[in-house]
Write a structure and sequence with these properties.
mainly alpha
Length: 369
């Protein structure tokens, strides 16, 4: 690979979509490298490094940090790609039933892999579905079933899913689980404990897949905007207005409905969805309109094998890579102490995970379901 033009020619997609998906995955493998944890070391307290490190952690409960946007970004960009891929298949003659079968199969495998991640290593095996893959298995299917509906009905369906979640949290009558914004004492916790058999660590809930389906639906609508024959500035203006509205709704309602990612409150869904729309608008303007696309292949290629690299890192591939570097790094960076060693090892792990994606791309190996 030599430049971003090659990516466009080979994938026949709007380049900003490749970039958006790629940089989201690039940040995800950065988390697996362990580098972000080092940024919050007491050594950096009170510095910009510490601030960045905090932004690369999930908020503990009520609030919003940059890292809380990564999963919504991924759900959203999957939706953006859907109109392009399915329209291409329908134009080639595939029937709706054939694409439905493909969607059901893909959702099944996403759910399987998402659940199977919890079967790796010691501990009790239960049916948990709070990670990106398991959640996406639900949002992807819902978004597909709505794709041929009008924009109005897709929007109404997304709002209905958010409203359904809100009402269940507000009106759930069972004692001990009727406090909507108290960790592990809300409807989401009841659902996990009584339907799936156990609570999830960190107060995450599986039911998040329902309200966060709005992110994938809105992604589909954003993809349709990009496919439209409108002038580029009209597309950008539409995305920006929708994004600003989402952010305003989310933060304006925060005093009454807290922004909580761990249970995907309506305010979180709107605010994070708004940021996703703005991020796409910025990417589209910068890369596809201004043509500032030199070097974006560095990120885009990571999004070419998202399932493989996510699973590889999640099941311990990152730890294996770290073990290969740990004996040698202290020889050159031992003078900086444990923190310096950890930063160098983590950076090398991140680079190696990226290089694996590069290696696969160069050999045209794409692992998909």
């Amino acid at each position: 690979m030599t430049n971003s033009t090659q990516l466009t020619a080979e994938n026949e997609r709007i380049l900003s979509i490749d970039f958006f998906r790629g940089i989201t995955m690039f940040l995800l493998i950065g988390e697996f490298s362990g580098l972000f944890e080092s940024l919050t070391d007491p050594f950096f307290k009170g510095t910009i490094v510490s601030f960045i490190g905090k932004q690369l952690e999930h908020h503990s409960w009520n609030g919003l940090r940059f890292w809380d946007l990564i999963q919504p970004f991924f759900m959203f960009i999957v939706g953006v790609s859907m109109p392009f891929s399915f329209t291409r298949r329908w134009n080639k003659g595939d029937s709706w039933n054939e694409t439905l079968h493909h969607t059901l199969k893909r959702s099944f495998w996403l759910l399987f892999f998402g659940w199977a991640l919890y079967c790796i290593g010691p501990g009790k095996i239960g049916f948990r579905m709070t990670n990106v893959l398991a959640q996406l298995s639900v949002t992807y299917l819902i978004a597909f079933l709505l794709m041929r509906k009008t924009v109005k009905w897709q929007l109404l369906a997304s709002f209905a899913l958010i409203l359904l979640s809100f009402l269940l949290y507000q009106l759930w009558p069972i004692e001990g689980f009727n406090q909507p914004y108290i960790a592990d004492h809300n409807f989401g916790a009841w659902f996990d404990l009584n339907i799936l058999g156990q609570l999830n660590g960190g107060h995450w809930v599986a039911f998040n897949a329902i309200p966060t389906s709005a992110h994938t639906i809105w992604g589909v609508l954003a993809g349709m905007i990009l496919m439209n024959e409108w002038p580029p500035l009209k597309k950008i203006r539409t995305l920006v207005i929708a994004g600003i509205l989402g952010i305003l709704i989310g933060f304006a309602l925060d005093p009454w409905i807290p922004i909580i990612k761990r249970i995907c409150t309506p305010t979180f869904v709107f605010a994070s969805g708004g940021f996703a729309l703005l991020a796409l608008a910025l990417s589209y303007w910068l890369i596809d309109v201004v043509k500032f696309n030199k070097g974006i292949w560095v990120f885009a290629l990571v999004g070419m094998n998202p399932l493989f690299i996510y699973l590889f890192a999640h099941i311990g591939g990152n730890e294996l890579i770290a073990k290969l570097y740990k004996p040698f790094v202290p020889l050159f960076f031992g003078w900086g102490g444990e923190l310096a060693i950890n930063i160098v090892v983590s950076s090398l792990v991140w680079f190696t995970l990226w290089y694996i994606c590069y290696f696969l791309y160069r050999r045209k190996i794409f692992i998909r379901v």
